[in-house]
Amino acid sequence: MFYHPGVESPEARLADVEYVEVQCKSALNPVKGMGFAWSLNPYTGCEHRCAFCYVRAFELRADRPSDDRYGRTVRIKLNVAGVLRSELSRKSWARETVVIGAATDPYQPAEGRYRLTRQCLQALCDFSNPAGMITRGPMIVRDIDVLTQLARRANLHITFSIPTVDDDIWRRTEPGTAHPRQRLRAIEKLVAAGIDVGVGMAPILPGLSDRPDRLEAVVKAARSAGATGLWAGMLHLKDGTREHFMSVLAKHWPELVPRYEDAYRARAYLPSAYGESTMKTVGRLRAVHGVSDRRRVILTPPPEPEQLSLLSG
After folding, report:
1. Given a cut of 60, is residue 44 above it in pLDDT?
2. How would you list the strands of the sheet with 73-77, edge to edge?
3. CATH code, 273
4. Cβ atoms within 10 Å, residue 261
5. Averaged over 273-295, what is the pLDDT?
6. How far apart are CA 102 and CA 107, in angstroms?
7. What values do phi and psi take at 27, rounded to 5?
8. N or C: which end of the chain has fewer CB within 10 A?
């Protein structure tokens, strides 16, 4: 058991994150109804602690903290790369696409110490296995050498999650993540290396990041960074995520609480009437700025808690 010093941010956080080293029985997790069949997560729990993270819903179902304590403990699957190699070598394995990071960010701070994501990428590369990745972590540029090799041998697509480039919204809703501009610089470096990288502008937050000028700022930034596409999705709030996000909203934007209570009353997903205009605006902005809406790895609609249990392994 190790401890990793927390990174200071404007959002208060504890000084330490507990790392719990575990052994996993499987690396590849079968997934249904998600647009891909297999997920891989070297870690369980995420130091990024995004206020809107849909994984909080599964944490609640699994009787683990989904509130401010979420992300204070990260389980490290020490043997995940070795187990992955064993699974990829099976005669029954059909070399289907494996998506890394569907339930926890593969480039959260723990990766700096353990390098498990890099080891898994090397395994996928050695077996020429198609892969996708979802991340908010600029640390990914460390692994450009392995990613480049993998992209030459198999289909590879990376989605960088950039819900907003607004400083205030980012600070208050993504307290453990790198600044969006750092993610954009990472995209530039990956694209320059010949790697297929898109942007996921999700979740869009009603009354906050859905302003047309803020949406356009993300689309323009993605285009400038060379992203190969951009998709977008509105915020959803399942039990576990709802309680924590509403507490963040009440603390920083109390005037929006009644609006959210009305929009998400007795439901997890925003009614189409609320988000339709925003999605049309995103479509128009993509056309204006010449950004594709091509989606190679997507998580919309978001997974149900039952699916998350499969994603996280």
Report:
1. yes
2. 2-5, 16-22, 73-77, 43-44
3. 3.20.20.70
4. 11
5. 89
6. 12
7. -105, -40
8. N
Hey, how many other C-beta atoms are within 10 angstroms of the C-beta on 91? 5
Q: Which residues neighbour 284 within 8 Å (Cβ) at sequence distance 6 or greater?
A: none
Does residue 311 sit in helix, strand or coil?
Answer: helix
8 Å CB contact between 178 and 136: yes
Distance of alpha carbon 13 from alpha carbon 189, whole angstroms: 31
User: Residue 261 is part of which domain span?
Assistant: 2-312
Query: Do 20 and 76 touch, CB atoms closer than 8 A?
Result: yes
- Both tokens of residue 278? 């925003």
Per this entry, what is the length of the chain? 313
Count the domains in the chain. Answer: 1
**pTM of model > 0.85:** yes
Q: What is the pLDDT of residues 244-271, one digit of tens each?
A: 999 999 999 999 999 999 999 878 888 8
